[in-house]
Amino acid sequence: MAITVNIYYSGINGNARKFAEEMVSSGVVKDIRAENGNLRYEYFYPMEDEETVLLIDSWNDQHAIDVHHASPMMAKIMELRKKYDLHMKVERYVSDETGVPETDQAFIKE
User: Fold this and answer.
1) Distance CA 69, CA 90 (A)
2) Measured distance between the N- and C-terminal CA atoms of the chain, rounded to whole angstroms
3) Helix (H, G, I), strand (E, B), or coil: what is residue 72?
4) Residues 83-92: pLDDT tens digits?
C-alpha cells in the first residue's frame, strides 16, 4: 500500500520555486529518488499561485518514509526550507489497490 504525501511549500518573492530549483540542482532530489522505497518525488507549480510549489512525494510504505525522515537527507531539506523561509501545508493519501474503477475508464484517454 503506497503512501503519497502532497506538500505545498509557500513563501514570498519566488522563494518556493527557488527552493525547488535548488533541491534539483544540488542533487538532493536525485538522491531522494534513489532511496529505497521512493516511488515518486516531483515538483509542480500551481498556475494560479506563483508563490507555491507542490511536491508529490510517494513511498512504498510508512517504514520507507520513516527511514527517509531519519536520514541525513532531511537535514539538507530542512536547511533549504529555512533558507527560503517556507511554510507548508501537507496532505497524505494511501493508495487504492483496486485501481481505477471500470465506470471511470470511459473518461480516461491513454
Assistant:
1) 15
2) 24
3) helix
4) 999 999 999 9
